[in-house]
Amino acid sequence: MGFREITLEMSTDYNDADARTAIANQLGIGEFTWQVEGKSLDARKKSHIHWVVRVGVLSDELAGGEPFVYPALEIPWKKRTSRALVVGSGPAGFFAALVLQKAGFVTQLIERGSRVARRADSIKEFESSGTFDAMNNYAFGEGGAGTFSDGKLTSRTKKVAAEKQFILSSYIRAGAPQEIQYLAHPHLGTDHLRRIVAGLRKEFEDLGGTMQFETLLTDLIIENEKVVAAVTSKGEIPLDVIVIAPGHSAHETYRMLIQNKVRFQTKSFAIGCRVEHPQELINTAQWGRASLPGVKAAEYRLTAKEDGYLPVYTFCMCPGGMVVPAAAYATANIVNGMSRYKRSGLFANAACVAGINLETLLKKPVEPLEALDWLGALEHQFYQYAKGYRAPFTSIDGFIKQQAPSRTPETSYPLGLAPAPLWEMLPREVSRSIARGLSVFNRKLKGFDSGIILGLESKTSSPIQVLRDQDRCCQGFSNLYLAGEGSGWSGGIISSGVDGIRTAMAIVQDKKRISDV
Predict the structure, then answer these.
(1) H-type helices in 354-468, by residue range?
(2) Which residues have a Cβ under 8 Å from the Cβ of 307 and sit 6 or more positions away?
(3) Counts of helices then strands in the chain (DSSP H, E)
(4) Alpha helices in 14-68 (DSSP H)
(5) Pair type for strands 269-278 and 347-356
(6) Structural domain spans, the chain
(7) Both ends of the chain: CA-CA distance in Å?
């Protein structure tokens, strides 16, 4: 049996029979098996948009060659008595808990919010009535913030083949489509994610792990630089090792950790707004036509780095999606993006943000608590302006020209729009740079300035970062670990999941810290 890896150029609406014919013609063989190993859309020429498909082919008619096998994550199992507590059920927390359970720890995962079904009900109620639920919202609840997002599975993190494959295969076992293993830009959509996180929970519990919902971590009991118990809204939990993966929105958890002498530093992050356009406009700008058979919806990724301005870029682009009210606290007003698997909505949206360093922006040293206060005050300012959860907005052209909108357009945002001078509500240097960036984007993508810009986008990443030792333990502690976006060391579903896995593996492999390892 021989093997070949070949690349095919296929029409956007090709099917498996078309691919099989193309393979047979290219290799001159009749009997074979094949699988897709990579797939990306080439839209550089609007007159010739096509899929570039990399396939692996096995056949007795071929000689030589070996299929590529992804390196597997090797988790050494041993029956242990050590009690591992994981806080937070987002990608970092869940995959840390899963690895620890597979390694033989007595693992308990706690989550401040509810199971995903109840969380979805609370979000639906919020969007229909404006009644905010502090326990279940777009930030908190089973699966973390990513559960109600576009579900992108891309990552800039390098050398994560084994960890990424572990995450993807776990998702597929829980009901994700097989295509996430080979698409260049895979995504799950919030509708799939709601089912997937429930499936992941079942796998963890079937392995013997326990999950406890509606349980908020409120304090730590520390003796001689070691956490001996977690204080929660449902009582104390004794432990031997603790991994906290709170996400970047849990500011009261940050404050509790700082009060307990966990060391953080400020870091660069990004703030701005969300832009929204009719999806057909984006399709036409990218493809030269309003729709393309076999492709869901056009995407874009735009950057502007102009001399004398902050770097501005689009982030978390949601084709065929909706802008959502992503407040983590009752008196904050922020937005995020979400889409379903089919990406069939009428609108496209993306964050449009400027990268900032608070110390440079404020022209003074900034401590971690000051960074949290500054960001919280900005989020509250937007709430006060809107007198609730309507999204302050203007047109993109109006933002550039500093002109108020003359009308309120249609939008995917469920709680309504409030006309606003957004350029005045953001820090001056941020506003100035975003206006410049929007002008650049309009030159790159025809019709971009006809869209709207709305809300405050403040959760691209954490404004602070925990100080970790080389073995990932928090500095000054022997058994306390922070992982994921809440640690300040990762961002997005895949990189956060990888951070959780690597944190758990560091615990598994550290024989000095855990007595029965």
Answers:
(1) 358-362, 368-386, 396-401, 422-425, 428-444
(2) none
(3) 13, 21
(4) 16-27
(5) antiparallel
(6) 2-59, 83-265+466-509, 268-457
(7) 43
Q: Phi/psi of residue 415, each to 5°?
A: -105, 15
Cβ pair 139, 149 in contact under 8 A: no
Cite the DSSP H helix spans in 276-350.
Answer: 279-287
Query: What's the pLDDT at 161?
Result: 86
Question: For residues 160-196, b (16+ Cβ closer than 10 Å) or e, as one string?
Answer: bebbbbbbbbbbbebebeeebbbbeebbbbbebbbeb
Measured CA to CA, the distance from residue 475 to residue 465 in angstroms comes to 12
Q: Which two tokens stand for residue 207?
A: 């392995």
Q: What Cα–Cα distance (Å) separates residue 178 from each residue in 35, 161, 193, 252, 422? A: 11, 17, 14, 39, 42
Compute and round to an integer the Cα radius of gyration of the chain.
24
Between strands 452-457 and 417-419, the pairing is unpaired
Q: Is 18 helix (H, G, I), strand (E, B) or coil?
A: helix
Q: How far is CA 416 from CA 150, 169, 378, 454, in A?
A: 21, 39, 20, 11
pLDDT at 251: 96
Cα–Cα nearest to 493, from 119, 189, 271, 114: 189
Which candidate, 5, 62, 77, places its Cα nearest to that of 30?
A: 62
The CATH number of the structural domain formed by 83-265+466-509 is 3.50.50.60
Give the other-Cβ count within 10 Å of 48's Cβ.
9
CATH number of 2-59: 3.30.1660, 1.20.120, 3.40.1800, 3.40.720? 3.30.1660
Dist. CA 382–CA 379, nearest whole Å:
5
Amino acid at 364: K
Residue 330 CA to its chain's centroid (Å): 22
Measured distance CA(350)–CA(457) in Å, rounded? 10
What's the pTM value of the predicted model, to 2 decimals? Answer: 0.95
Q: Is the dihedral of CA 205, 210, 214, 220 positive or negative?
A: negative
CB 390 within 8 A of CB 418: yes
Q: CB neighbours of 186 closer than 8 A, spacing ≥ 6?
A: 152, 153, 154, 179, 180
Query: What CA–CA distance (Å, rounded) separates 185 from 152?
Result: 7
**Residue 2 DSSP code:** E
**Residue 165 belongs to what H/E stretch?**
helix 161-173
Rounded Cα distance, 125 and 110, in Å: 24
Average pLDDT by stretches of 10, the chain with 517 residues? 96 97 97 96 96 97 88 93 97 98 98 97 95 96 94 73 94 96 94 96 98 98 97 98 96 98 98 98 97 97 97 97 97 97 97 98 97 98 98 98 94 97 98 98 97 97 96 97 96 96 96 64
